[in-house]
Amino acid sequence: MKAAVLREVGKPLQIEDVQVRKPGPSEVLIRTAAAGVCHSDLHFVEGSYPARVPVVLGHESAGIVEAVGDDVRTVKVGDHVITCLSVFCGHCEDCLTGRMSLCSSPEVRQTETPRLSQAGGVMNQFLNLSSFAEQMLIHEHACTAIRKDMPLDRAALIGCGVTTGVGAAIHTSKVRPGETVAVIGCGGVGLSAINGAAIAGAGRIIAIDTSPAKDNISRQFGATDFINAAETDAVKAVMEMTKGGVHHSFEAIGLAKTAEQAFNMLRRGGTANVIGMIPVGQQVSLMGAAFLGEKRIQGSAMGSNRFPVDMPRFIDFYMAGKLKLDEMISRRIKLEDINEAFAEMKTGSIARSVIVFDA
Amino acid sequence: MKAAVMREVGKPLQIEQVQLNKPGPHEVLIRTVAAGVCHSDVHFFEGSYPTQVPAVLGHESAGVVEQVGSEVRTVKVGDHVITCLSVFCGHCDQCLTGHMSLCQSPETRRQPGEEPRITQNGMPMNQFLNLSSFAEQMLVHEHACVAIRKDMPLDRAALIGCGVMTGVGAAIHTSNVRPGETVAVIGCGGVGLSAINGAAIAGAGRIIAIDTSSAKDNISRQFGATDFINAAETDAVKAVMEMTKGGVHHSFEAIGLGKTAEQAFNMLRRGGTANIIGMIPIGQQVTLMGAAFLGEKRIQGSLMGSNRFPVDMPRLVDFYLSGKLKLDEMISRRIKLENVNEAFAEMKTGNIARSVITFDA
Predict the structure, then answer these.
(1) What is the Cα gyration radius of chain B?
(2) Which of B84, B95, B103, B162 is catalytic?
């Protein structure tokens, strides 16, 4: 099968022929229908987070089940599924206390024989998925079946970016009706955090970005206000608009500086959520005395998801018109165009490219 | 009446005569029976946090109601009360959403143009944290005290007024410790010991006390600690990570330093919560590895134990009287108002848990 392979950090991905083995007892073989190109793929391409090479990137996808192992119970051949990198064991402390997205059990991550290979040599799987490929071989607990009237190119986005943003608002920070929200960075994840806050009934939702083009689009996702951080001090502007700070802030870029801003724009008792992947080595520096106001800053990883529960609900939201996905897809591309999508992502102008595979 | 007055940052308090105004409609006049000497008094005394001088310090006290204003409904003359600096208005956004300890409404203070609560020969004297407990009497807003059962000794009740509420509340309210979860507490002064005690009351599993004084090994166990780390000899973060195989669910910083706040964050397991109770001096930064947020770690302030003190303090009194809350073990010395400067000096040595000023009946 064809796959986009990273052979060296900083170099373009190459389309190569890669082999996938037969499913083990708890594994599922999926024919990839669509894969989103996410900013976290770029983090690994650029080397700000480490990945073992050679590797097939991609981790936000939807497809159709082609084969299942003997012990698979949650999906069957022909099911439409969304994949998720939050693969979980189902019996560790995190899984059993409502925090399955924090599961780090090796038993669902390590395999006796590698899932991917190339001419008998090594090919690494990325985040237990590797979606930039015509097929994926994954653990049963890394996908969930969805209703068949859901278009798979839009379903793919729910696989990572949308769940990360919506989940940060509704799970990690638990936004309640009428509370105030600020979101720093209006890429796919930030727009989804805005959308999640709107679904949860937030009052004022302030979108913050350095690109004025995000004014209009953020309002389509539910923002009530927009601050152009290229022209205005965002912290000062939020403090003035809300008379003292927001209940919830979300950092959806991945920079220490904007994480600090998220903390500094809180009201007393407010919660800042760091969604973005801050490059390894960057420090977040906070005024110690600010903790006297019971301010909180916390990480939000993959939207604190319980994805087999959440993703089917998110699809219902999309079908009911509450979750915006059409507006998020800026381009549908072929696997061969993956490097252009990365280049465009760096300009910050587009929300999301989706790779669509031939049926 | 006699009061301990701070006239200048860093200088010893002076015992002076000061006068109290008559209670306004919502105010209560209290005869002070006991007042704890708390580390936060030292913060203001040393100037690491600002306060207006001259001021009567003290903010952790218990006493007996002597007089009430015409509109006071929650206490009456003769009631035994604990005071609290978390004075609340009762109708703002914070008060009405369960966060009364974050209320900042100015209406519980005397308004501009009104006579000050405390004066000296006609000149205003500042009230510290709306209480000023280092004095024979206190004039406070009705919402700055709560009545308690009369079989509770007032010298021990005083400690509940700040340090104990702060520590216990950090564990049971701010961080919401649940049965069987793991806890680490950095700093075993009065607040840290109370955080240990609160975690024990909430049913925590392993409770690891951390201090640089080996004398705290024994005392922390009396409050419920299951383990002790001497941070003068061992890397506390490494030791906690090893003992818990990957970090604790809850950590508490009860000293007030940027460095120990960072340690509290670094000893968390994935999804764990670090609570900053200590008052970190203004200007000190807390610097965290940005990538650590990928593990959904959380760091948050805990102020006055996120208290709802009119609800909490009578419950804490019940815990004491049933033997679950340790207070006797916390009082190292009972002193007179005149000895307050010695108590500050001893506090800085880190040896004793708490001095309590007792007033003559």
Answers:
(1) 20
(2) B162
**Paired tokens of B343:** 């108590």
Please check whether residue A26 is in contact with residue A140, taking contact to mean a CB–CB distance below 8 angstroms: yes
Cβ-defined contact of B290 to A274 (cutoff 8 Å)? yes
Choose, from B26, B39, B59, B141, the residue flagged as catalytic. Answer: B59
CB atoms within 10 A of CB B289: 18
* B22–chain A nearest CA distance, Å: 33
Sheet holding A124-125, edge to edge: A14-17, A2-6, A55-56, A124-125
Instruction: Test A295 with B300 for CB contact under 8 angstroms.
Output: yes
Rounded distance between C-alpha atoms, residue A198 and residue A176, angstroms? 10
Q: Taking CB atoms and an 8 Å limit, are A259 and B293 in contact across chains?
A: yes
Residue B8 CA, distance from chain mean position = 23
Give A281's contacts in chain B (Cβ within 8 Å): 291
Measuring CA to CA, which residue among B211, B207, B200, B307 is closest to residue B254? B211
Instruction: Give B280's contacts in chain A (Cβ within 8 Å).
Output: 288-289, 291
Phi, psi at B30, each rounded to 5°? -120, 135
- Pairwise CB contact (< 8 Å): B296 & A304: yes
> Regarding beta strands A246-251 and A181-184, do their DSSP bridges make them parallel or antiparallel, or are they unpaired?
parallel
Residue in chain B lying closest to A274 (CA):
B293
Closest CA to B298 of A143, A169, A172, A278: A172
Say if the ipTM goes beyond 0.85. Answer: no
The catalytic residue among A26, A39, A59, A248 is: A59
Each residue's pLDDT, cut to its tens digit, for chain A (359 residues) gives 999 999 999 999 999 999 999 999 999 999 999 999 988 898 899 888 888 999 999 999 999 999 999 999 999 999 999 999 999 999 989 999 999 999 999 999 989 899 999 998 999 999 999 999 999 999 999 999 999 999 999 999 999 999 999 999 999 999 999 999 999 999 999 999 999 999 999 999 999 999 999 999 999 999 999 999 999 999 999 999 999 999 999 999 999 999 999 999 999 999 999 999 999 899 999 999 999 999 999 999 999 999 999 999 999 999 999 999 999 998 999 999 999 999 888 876 666 899 999 86
- Chain A residues touching residue B284 (CB < 8 angstroms): 288-289
CB contact under 8 A, B270 and A297: no
Closest CA to A261 of A243, A280, A237: A237
**DSSP result, A57-91:** ----EEEEEEEE-TT--S--TT-EEEE-S----SS
Give yes or no for residue B351 having a pLDDT over 70. Answer: no
Mapped onto helix, strand or coil, the DSSP state of residue A135 is strand
Give the tens place of pLDDT for each residue, B193-237.
999 999 999 999 999 999 999 999 999 999 999 999 999 999 999
Nearest to B280 among A101, A283, A289 (CB): A289
